[in-house]
Design a protein that fits this description.
Its EC number is 2.1.1.201. Helices cover 50% and strands 18% of the residues. It is α/β, with parallel strands linked by helices. A 7-stranded mixed beta sheet has the order 5-4-3-6-7-9-8, sandwiched between helices. A two-stranded antiparallel ribbon has the order 1-2. Strand 1 and strand 2 (57-60) form a beta hairpin. The protein binds the ligand COc1cc(O)cc(C/C=C(\C)CC/C=C(\C)CC/C=C(\C)CC/C=C(\C)CC/C=C(\C)CC/C=C(\C)CC/C=C(\C)CC/C=C(\C)CC/C=C(\C)CCC=C(C)C)c1O and S-adenosylmethionine.
Length: 327
């Protein structure tokens, strides 16, 4: 809670907590204050008490950041079990599809923003490891006359099972990251993974640093979505890819009716029963309804400078994956 209060204080002062609380030894951290793509810091804008929404509630922008922080601080420990319960495991398939769509190449440098408890990062690591193992096997098969000692030596010399791929999980919430780190230990992920406390609106990374930027179920919670998109564009290398998995607009009227019923009648109840937190799950279903449609969000991504922007709706549009390139 003390950290949360300090976030509020720094925000109030027109400074951002993520700038101050850098917690990763990764190289390439930005040493100066961030600039927008036009080189301008909008400090005066940050100080204005502009109104926005938090679910169906109208709040000041300052308040929204605090409230979102509190939601994820509160749900962190039950976050993963809640997702399985609410979606009957379907969120796992959506996340798998995001990583399949990414189809990372050997050596991919991924930034997973609003990465929370690490679901995208772990999928990415499993994918690149399997891909790298497959490549090694194919290479060995091509050299069929090798002795078993030579094969063993080849495997042992392979120091990096990820083939140079790396992922940085960046999230504004300490509690979500804490759960993520525990999961990483439990699942045996050590190499190629870094955890960074930071704000999607002011990423603590240099320009042109990553091959892929992902954000799954995160951008809906950000106060200035345009600012987050511009930051995504800034940190990607030329040729880099933006991928976003987010709730979207249901395109089938029958599914829409059932989904609304399910969202408003069932999800907050599950939130209360499983996580002891009705309000956070009411925020979840309300925030889904406030998020732009597939087409509107596509335009926002284009406005941030991305090209070849496309999207794919999944499960009747309950969620969509948007993709764009920095060219
Ligand atoms: C605080 O912020 C957050 C917290 C978080 O924990 C997570 C997030 C981010 C979110 C995720 C990572 C994903 C979370 C997943 C969801 C929100 C769920 C998405 C929903 C679905 C995949 C299912 C969609 C449901 C439908 C299309 C409608 C089907 C629903 C029914 C047949 C039930 C209709 C409901 C009623 C008639 C109300 C009365 C019913 C009951 C009291 C019985 C209770 C029923 C159930 C528990 C049924 C559950 C059924 C399903 C899950 C349907 C699955 C089937 C398919 C779509 C094929 C975050 O930001
Ligand atoms: C629904 S969770 C998604 C976690 C993970 N990506 C997943 O798919 O399971 C949303 C995450 O967004 C994070 N978040 C909210 N606002 C943020 C911001 N401005 N910058 C970075 N992360 C943010 C929250 O702390 C939370 O961990």
């Amino acid at each position: 809670m003390a950290t949360h209060r300090s976030y509020a204080l720094w925000s109030y002062c027109g400074l951002r907590w993520s700038r101050v609380m850098r917690c990763s030894p990764l190289p390439g951290f930005r040493s100066s204050w961030p600039r927008g793509p036009l080189g301008v810091r909008h400090l005066s804008q940050e100080k204005q008490a502009t109104e926005t929404h938090f679910g169906f509630e109208t709040v000041s922008e300052e308040e929204k950041g605090d409230k979102v922080y509190h939601v994820f601080e509160s749900v962190a420990k039950k976050y993963d079990v809640m997702n399985d319960m609410m979606s009957l495991g379907i969120h796992r398939i959506w996340k798998d599809m995001l990583v399949w769509k990414m189809h990372p190449f050997p050596g991919t440098q991924l930034l997973d923003v609003a990465g929370g408890t690490g679901d995208i990062a772990f999928r990415f690591l499993n994918y690149v490891e399997a891909q790298h193992k497959g490549k090694l096997k194919r290479q060995l098969r091509a050299q069929q006359n090798l002795s078993w000692e030579e094969i063993a030596r080849k495997y042992q010399n392979e120091e990096d099972p990820l083939g140079g791929s790396r992922v940085v999980v960046c999230d504004i919430n300490k509690e979500m990251l804490k759960v993520g780190k525990q999961k990483a230990r439990a699942q045996g992920h050590k190499a190629g993974l870094a955890w960074v406390l930071g704000d999607a609106e002011e990423l603590p990374f240099d320009d042109d640093k990553f091959d892929v930027y992902t954000i799954a179920f995160g951008i809906r919670n950000v106060t200035h979505i345009n600012q987050a998109l511009q930051e995504a564009h800034r940190v990607l290398k030329p040729g880099g890819r933006f991928l976003c998995l987010e709730f979207s607009q249901v395109n089938n009227p029958l599914v829409s009716r059932l989904y609304d019923l399910y969202s408003f009648q069932v999800i907050p109840v599950l939130g209360e029963v499983i996580a002891g937190d009705w309000k956070s799950y009411q925020y979840l279903v309300e925030s889904i309804r406030q998020f732009p449609s597939q087409e509107e969000f596509k335009e926002m991504i284009q406005d941030a400078g991305f090209e070849k922007v496309t999207y794919e709706s999944l499960t009747s549009g309950i969620v969509a994956i948007h993709s764009g390139f920095k060219l």
